[in-house]
Specification:
The structure holds two protein chains of two kinds. By secondary structure, chain A is mainly β. Helices cover about 10% and strands about 50% of the residues of chain A. Chain A has helices spanning about 5-10, 15-25, and strands spanning about 35-40, 45-50, 55-65, 70-75, 85-90, 95-105, 105-110, 120-130, 135-140, 140-145, 155-160, 160, 165, 170-175, 185, 195-200, 205-210, 215-220. Chain A is globular and about 50 Å long. Chain B contains four helices and five strands, in the order βαββαβαβα. Chain B is globular and about 35 Å long. Classes of the chains: A mainly beta, B alpha+beta. The interface of A and B includes residues 42 and 98 of A.
Chain lengths: ~220, ~100
């Protein structure tokens, strides 16, 4: 039996209608956590202004999705390419086999060997300078080197790129702390509605994705 | 409609001639600019630039077309453009 308009109006006036509507509104809707997937060749985040890290001490951290694909992924850099304070990671044979960062005075190689699969997926990367020590942490692994070799000025301008190395994956929760452990910059990088330019939640430096398209946004639970 | 990215490698002259403002940071690859857009925008782009030949190719054919300097707009997906860019601009050597 089909409802005609008359039937529909009768139903709308029914005292049961409110209950029916209430039922629909109570259907739980899952919240989708969006992240912006970079393509590894053309896309990266460019900051609206370079962030000068606190030379007397800082912590720079972000979450990055390490994938098993054998690629070398630029994590961040100034615009000096690999000559400045920059970092990249590489997964080989399904492991986070080697991790590097470079300084203006040359390459410092930090090796973080992980067991197969244990260092893949979303990891928190943290670069913390205390005194002359620079500790690099990726997930549960860390290594500390002397920062006395660093003649760079510790400026970050790009996320997801270091020279010709582009990141294949996604970033979120980009944060900078000063030497007093005060959060000075935070860009979540997860607001789909904001589109190409992601606004800071702390500080005034925003991030714009170069070569952005709206299809970069993915449901994080599907990645 | 499922949304995904497509890539068109177009001659530098075409980019300078009208697409520079719309795709300001399109990477330069051996004299071609790589435009990034969605499948939804593909038809609009093809309609807007209907005087151009849009050819969908695999990476090997795109590399050949670029090396021979073809005027066509060479369209592919992300996996193929990765191979094209890697061929023309291999990542910087990194020590072990």
């Amino acid at each position: 039996m089909y409802l005609n308009k008359k039937d529909l109006s009768l139903k709308k006036s029914s005292k049961y209608l409110n209950l029916f509507d209430l039922g629909e509104s109570y259907i739980p809707k899952s919240v989708i956590n969006y992240v912006a997937q970079l393509d590894g060749v053309t896309q990266y985040w460019q900051l609206s202004a370079p962030i000068q890290l606190d030379l007397s001490g800082f912590a720079l951290e972000f979450d990055y999705s390490v994938i098993s694909q054998d690629t070398t992924n630029g994590l961040f850099s100034n615009d000096k390419g690999l000559g400045g304070f920059s970092a990249y990671e590489r997964v080989s044979s399904g492991r986070l086999a080697t991790f590097y960062y470079e300084t203006i005075s040359g390459t410092l190689n930090s090796t973080l060997f992980g067991s197969a699969g244990s260092d893949l997926g979303l990891l928190t990367f943290r670069f913390e300078k205390i005194g002359n020590d620079l500790t690099v942490t990726a997930g549960s692994r860390n290594i500390t080197v002397s920062s006395s070799e660093f003649t760079d000025d510790f400026i970050v301008k790009f996320i997801g790129r270091a020279a010709s190395l582009y990141a294949l994956g996604y970033f979120k929760n980009f944060r900078v702390f000063n030497s007093s452990s005060v959060l000075t910059n935070e860009i979540p990088l997860t607001n789909k509605a904001q589109g190409a330019t992601q606004l800071a939640t702390v500080g005034s430096v925003n991030a714009t994705m170069v070569n952005y398209t709206e299809s970069v946004w993915k449901d994080e639970s599907t990645l | 409609m499922s949304l995904y990215q497509l890539y068109a490698s177009i001659p530098q002259a075409d980019w300078v001639g009208g697409l520079k403002s719309r795709f300001p940071q399109a990477p330069l690859v051996n004299g071609y600019r790589v435009l990034v857009f969605t499948n939804r925008d593909y038809l609009k782009l093809a309609e807007q630039y209907n005087d151009k030949d849009f050819i969908e190719l695999q990476s090997g054919d795109i590399i050949s077309a670029i090396e021979s300097g073809q005027d066509a707009w060479l369209v592919c997906d992300v996996n193929n453009i990765r191979e094209v860019i890697k061929y023309f601009t291999p990542p910087e050597l990194i020590g072990e």
